[in-house]
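haha ok so turns out i had the wrong file open the whole time. this is the CORRECT one, sorry everyone. sequence first:
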Amino acid sequence: MFVWSYWKTIFTSPASPSDEFCLSKSDKEEYEREERPESQQDILRRAAKDLPIYTTTASRAIRYCDRCQLIKPDRCHHCSACDLCILKMDHHCPWVNNCVGFSNYKFFLLFLLYSLLYCLFVAATVLQYFIKFWTNDLPDSHAKFHVLFLFFVAAMFFISVLSLFSYHCWLVSKNRSTIEAFRAPTFRNGPDKNGFSLGCSKNLKEVFGDEKKYWFLPVFTSLGDGCNFPTRLVIMDPEQLTVSSQNEPTKSSGANQPFPARPLSESQNRLLDNESQWVEDGSEEENVKSGAKKHVIVSLES
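then structure:
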């Protein structure tokens, strides 16, 4: 299983955005002719109006890759090492010489898990000889130094892989990538590190799939297509409510709209199929007076 997972992590090609996120020939020519960023953004907004895009740059601009010449889907980033836009990119891993993203993130997690178990197995089987080495019960030969080296290497790798695996387990439970952990994606209400989180159980299913019997096998079972992700709107505090209300006219101002207004398609939102819509209780003013710090709205489309 260790070798199988490692093989799949290395040789699974990183998934890239589909053709629908590429600009048409006319839009691309018009974009290249324009020199003003405002005019370029107008072209991108027009091209992205029917795309399921809900995140922007920190300056509220459409995320566009000049290198690949396409509009970036949510959670997609350009990898300078691979020179590609990678869907749900987590990081570029030199240990596997590949990008870890939507297409092979499950394989990477299983590779870490089986590496951890393999190191534990080696350390446990060598432990008795390691103890005999320190008590001088081990026969005096060159092999005893090999035992010492093997135990220390297995123990050090176990500690290193354990910390990395624990960190990625935490990321999965929060439905974040490594990039999003350091730089929160920007939604309508500003940066929100929990914007893609649906709860620990559904976050696990998004990566490992619906059927638990396949969770520990290095076969692709992740949900979705890597371009569309269920989102939820998290209003952080009363101050952000004020900022959000001030920006509300901008969101419905046609050409000046900061990003497309098309709601998330339910057919692409399998994790929320059985969820009922959550509505805030009370007005915003009442929530501010009561000192509420967080109000969660799960936005669904029937």
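The chain has a mean pLDDT of 79.
again sry for the mixup
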